[in-house]
Amino acid sequence: MIPAIKDDPFQLRILIIDDDQEVRSSLQTVLETLGYATQTAASGEDGLHAIGHSAFDLVLCDLRLPGLSGLEVLKQKSSPVPLILMTAYGSQDIATQAAHAGAFDYISKPINPDDLVFVLKKFEEFERLKRENDALKASLSEKYSFKNIVAQSAGFKEIFETIKRLSPFNTTVMITGESGTGKELLARAIHESSPRRGKPFIAINCGAIPENLMESELFGHKKGAFTDASRDKKGLFEEANGGTLFLDEVGELPLHLQVKLLRALQEQTIRRVGDEQSITIDVRLVSATLRNLENDAQEGRFREDLLYRLNVVSIHLPPLRERVEDIALLVEHFLQKHSKRLGVPLKKAGPDVMKILLEYEWKGNARELENCMERALVLSQGDEISLEALPEAVIRRHAKRAHSTTSTPTDSNDNLSIKQRTASLEIDLIQRALQKTGGNRTHAAKILEISHRALLYKLKEYGLSGGDAEPKDG
Ligand SMILES: Nc1ncnc2c1ncn2[C@@H]1O[C@H](COP(=O)(O)OP(=O)(O)OP(=O)(O)O)[C@@H](O)[C@H]1O
Ligand SMILES: [Mg+2]
Asked: Is the C-beta atom of 366 inside 6 A of ligand 1?
């Protein structure tokens, strides 16, 4: 057996499949002299096994092999790695067959070194373009994402701008928004884009900690301060020193702690429970709330002076139903995120599923959509998300709506969002136009009476484009 390839990520790796020992070793010598890493296999079967077990950039495979032929290897290989056929029978016929079967190229035997170098150059050029293209795609997706936040809606673009502008400062930020809109994600993004990145980001949910433990949790305590205080303990303010402290559901903080929090913010010092000494702290505070704290302040449940301190800058995260243009991006993002995490193949959401997702209300916002996609990924078979894999509630809502729009002339659909209803109508019309024109976008745009550009934009916005099965313009 010839030893396996050594691990250098910058070296292109080539698998040589040939039953002739002499051909194998001479090719190996030439290729290694040219700077490639190589591995060899003496039969089609062994070759397939090698392709299934390690990553190659290229396969050089003999056409005539005792067991599985080169064409067979080409058809059966489990990865998209490009394959060059080597043939002593270099007729036009074989060349055509090889091209049809998806070979990258072919080369005649006995191998002329110049020919080999030429084919390899061509392959490297192809590889370079492919990598450039991948990098370009990655930078495109970067455009719509900021520190893991995926969005393209105007509302979010403004939020990204705000974060970038305030990132160098220690300004206290208050984030409001419904459950699941991404408040914690945003708090992290603020931290990550500030000079404090690299220092701790500490999150605490003020609603989840019993009132009597809250003070010690935030500010720490001295040994003996109360019955259970068997030793000195740092509070979260100290843990977060130099970094950012995220106070989630800050509206749940009891009034007496609101006073202490205000003092900590004003004086940049805290005192552990049971301690006389003050400790200087350097913490940026970001807080979040689902409640209307202005109301709470008016009704005496929340200190007005603290509120002013906390929302020096306030950012409101709009609910998902008000930013339909983010849904398709999020669907793709969550599918990718969870297919990676679960180690299952990536699946796409086809137009039928996407239409339902775009129309649904998402009361639980991005979190609900995320759960829905994770579940659908696991439950769907094949490479598309199936309708049946969506939760009952999502489907039922849709069925009800579809029924009510077709059965009654006066529309009893109770979703009155102009944005969502328009999106749904547009998707319908676009799909019908594409169907009518057999997928020809230029003609479809004419029928729809919009520009070709506008159609492409909408296809992207609604997640209707992309994918290999995409019909081409003709
Ligand atoms: N714009 C977004 N891009 C990518 N992921 C998102 C986005 N918005 C939310 N998520 C994801 O949705 C989930 C919920 O987000 P997060 O916990 O930040 O919401 P929240 O507003 O803090 O919710 P709650 O009020 O219930 O605490 C997380 O997994 C988060 O990563
Ligand atoms: Mg949260």
From this structure: yes
Question: Which pLDDT does position 401 carry in this prediction?
Answer: 58
pLDDT tens for residues 59-69? 999 998 999 99
In the prediction, which pLDDT does 359 show?
85
CA distance 465 to 468: 10
Average confidence (pLDDT) over 311-328? 92
List, in order, residues 6 or more apart from 415 with CB less than 8 Å away. Answer: 359, 361, 401, 421
3-state secondary structure of 274: coil
Placement of tokens 């990676």 in the chain: 340
Q: Considering the chain, what percentage of its residues have pLDDT values greater than 70?
A: 89
Whether 287 is in the pocket of ligand 1, judged by its Cβ within 6 Å, is no
- Phi then psi for residue 214, to 5 deg, are -60, -45
Residue with tokens 């007005």: 304
Q: Which domains does the chain have, with CATH numbers?
A: 13-139 (3.40.50.2300), 150-318 (3.40.50.300), 322-461 (1.10.8.60)
What is the residue whose two structure tokens read 């793709």?
Answer: 332
